[in-house]
């Protein structure tokens, strides 16, 4: 058994890499279209096996201590495997529709699949990294992979969003790198140089407080950029709105949580070295600022993919709030919220991709009566919105209740009340926007030429839309997956969503509802994971 443990630890990284190699060698064809989903399913199985192993026998290492899995990283691997399985299972139907409409080619689909597999492997490596430096490298690798995915459409808006994503996230991750250098400097003067997370926690009380305070601030700001926390959040709505729908599901449902995992590790070190006050104050300020930005911009939002992106900011703000509270209940609720948010966002982004294919527009006011046109899709999207807003029986109801309970118990109550008020504003805005899209009579979709799209679709504002021409006579335009076609048309009225897409949406909703009713075997893992980064009851 001991000889199998290192292989099991390597599996979450190696399985996606094997999938990437398969697509690089054989391309996108009927025999490989389910390769990514198969690798994601095996990754989830490996994550579950690691979680069971860690729950029984404690943390394990591999590769000479370079990789390490404990309860927290095992739980996060379960989150990655679950959301990756949903996103990759939805990808064949999504890409098939794009190829049929001549907005993509098999070659573009193969490149898409290679990049997605590398993206998943990089996130898994970040969770297994035993060293803060390796964690930084893995997080930066996710930026490289996803930048190409964000810019796949090659329109002006997509390229602008990709560059904004690279510039802002690289700036943030550079701050984190500087923080890592300073932390290594403090560790060197404490007699144990290096960035191994266990060693840093062992010598935390011996670190120079002044240097450590600057290092922690830079690390939280740097990784907070990748989370989408204010003030370096501007990349998130552009990138999420321009990426293909399955990629948006992965970015919102998993990537943000992986970056927040890094913040949790840094906060645990900060609490040991500086006491709980410093990191708590910083996270409270970033949390309330992020919630305020999300609530304000959601009120007047006119693009439904950007609407979902700002909703992601709101939920990351809630995670920062729970991390600032820092009690065992707050952290356990935070971790449950990560999984519930990932499930809901996977459902909604996959659904939004199908809505874009059906209607040819991402403008909220141009989508009307979706329930009459495709009732099953509309029902899944509507339930996904309710799940995202924390309505029972979905898991976000339980997780948000736990976070706010812990917050009011730990105080200060007025800050928690302010956050709750902002959440209510977000709830009202999302309900109003989604009701407009789902209810009423189907609206006629306006025609947009490729030139109109280039003129009106920009990532630099909060009202830009990705509009696909609704006629078969428009000029050539660049597809959502990197291919170029002579036409870009909306799906004819009366055509229903593929059964594969509906199955993914239903599976995500069912999983989110089941988690809201009972966490089952996950409950022990949740509290064990919370115990690894907090000693507060």
TrEMBL record:
Q: Which PANTHER family match?
A: HYDROGENASE-4 COMPONENT F
Task: Quote the biased-composition stretches of kind Low complexity, using this chain's numbering.
Answer: 476-491
- Where does this protein come from, organism-wise? Pseudonocardia eucalypti
**What does the organism's lineage look like at the top?**
Bacteria, Bacillati, Actinomycetota, Actinomycetes, Pseudonocardiales
Give the top-rank taxon of the lineage listed in the UniProt record for this protein. Answer: Bacteria
Q: Which InterPro entries match?
A: ComplexI-like_HydComp, NADH_UbQ_OxRdtase, ND/Mrp_TM
- Name the chain's protein: Proton-conducting transporter membrane subunit
Question: Could you tell me the keywords of this UniProt record?
Answer: Cell membrane, Membrane, Oxidoreductase, Transmembrane, Transmembrane helix
Q: Which residues form the NADH:quinone oxidoreductase/Mrp antiporter transmembrane domain?
A: 129-421
Q: What sections of the protein cross the membrane?
A: 6-27, 34-54, 74-97, 109-128, 134-151, 163-183, 214-235, 247-266, 278-299, 319-340, 376-394, 414-439, 502-522
């Amino acid at each position: 058994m001991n000889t199998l443990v290192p292989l099991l630890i390597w599996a979450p990284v190696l399985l996606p890499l094997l999938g990437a190699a398969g697509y690089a060698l054989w391309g996108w064809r009927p025999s490989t279209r389910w390769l990514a989903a198969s690798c994601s399913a095996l990754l989830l199985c490996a994550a579950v096996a690691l979680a069971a192993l860690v729950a029984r026998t404690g943390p394990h290492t591999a590769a000479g201590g370079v990789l390490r899995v404990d309860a927290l990283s095992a739980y996060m691997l379960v989150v990655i495997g679950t959301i990756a399985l949903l996103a990759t299972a939805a990808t064949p139907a999504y890409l098939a529709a794009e190829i049929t409409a001549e907005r993509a080619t098999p070659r573009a689909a193969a490149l898409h699949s290679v990049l997605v597999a590398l993206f998943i492997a990089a996130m898994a490596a970040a969770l297994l990294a035993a060293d803060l430096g390796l964690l930084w490298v893995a997080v930066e690798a996710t930026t490289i992979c996803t930048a190409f995915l964000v810019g796949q459409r090659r329109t002006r808006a997509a390229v602008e969003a990709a560059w904004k994503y690279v510039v802002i996230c690289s700036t943030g991750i550079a701050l984190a790198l500087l923080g890592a250098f300073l932390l290594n400097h403090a560790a060197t003067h404490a007699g144990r140089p290096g960035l191994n997370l266990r060693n840093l926690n062992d010598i935390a009380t011996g670190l120079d407080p002044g240097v450590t305070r600057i290092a922690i601030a830079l690390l939280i700001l740097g990784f907070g950029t990748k989370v989408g926390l204010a003030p370096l959040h501007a990349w998130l709505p552009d990138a999420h709105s321009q990426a293909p729908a399955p990629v948006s599901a992965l970015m919102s449902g998993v990537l943000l949580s992986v970056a927040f995992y890094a913040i949790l590790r840094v906060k645990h070190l900060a609490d040991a070295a500086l006491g709980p006050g410093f990191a708590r104050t910083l996270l409270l300020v970033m949390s309330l600022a992020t919630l305020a930005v999300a609530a304000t911009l959601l009120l007047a939002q006119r693009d439904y993919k950007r609407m979902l992106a700002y909703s992601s900011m709101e939920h990351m703000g809630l995670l920062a709030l729970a991390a600032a509270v820092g009690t065992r209940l707050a952290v356990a609720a935070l971790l449950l919220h990560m999984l519930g948010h990932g499930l809901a966002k996977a459902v909604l982004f996959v659904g939004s991709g199908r809505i874009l294919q059906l209607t040819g527009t991402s403008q909220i006011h141009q989508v009307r009566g979706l329930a009459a046109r495709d009732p099953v899709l509309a029902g899944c999207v509507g339930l996904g919105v309710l799940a995202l807003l924390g309505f029972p029986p979905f898991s976000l109801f339980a997780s948000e209740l736990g976070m706010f309970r812990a917050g009011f118990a730990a105080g200060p109550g007025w800050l928690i009340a302010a956050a709750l008020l902002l959440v209510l504003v977000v709830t009202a805005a999302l309900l109003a926007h989604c009701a407009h899209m789902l209810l009423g009579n189907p609206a006629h979709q306006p025609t947009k030429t490729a030139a109109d799209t280039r003129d009106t679709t920009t990532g630099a504002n909060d009202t830009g839309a990705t509009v696909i021409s609704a006629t078969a006579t428009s000029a050539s335009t660049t597809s959502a997956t990197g291919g170029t076609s002579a036409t870009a048309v909306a799906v004819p009225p009366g055509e229903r969503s593929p059964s594969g897409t509906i199955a993914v949406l239903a599976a995500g909703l069912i999983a989110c509802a089941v988690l809201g009713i009972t966490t089952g075997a996950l409950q022990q893992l949740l509290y064990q994971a919370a115990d690894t980064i907090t000693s507060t009851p």
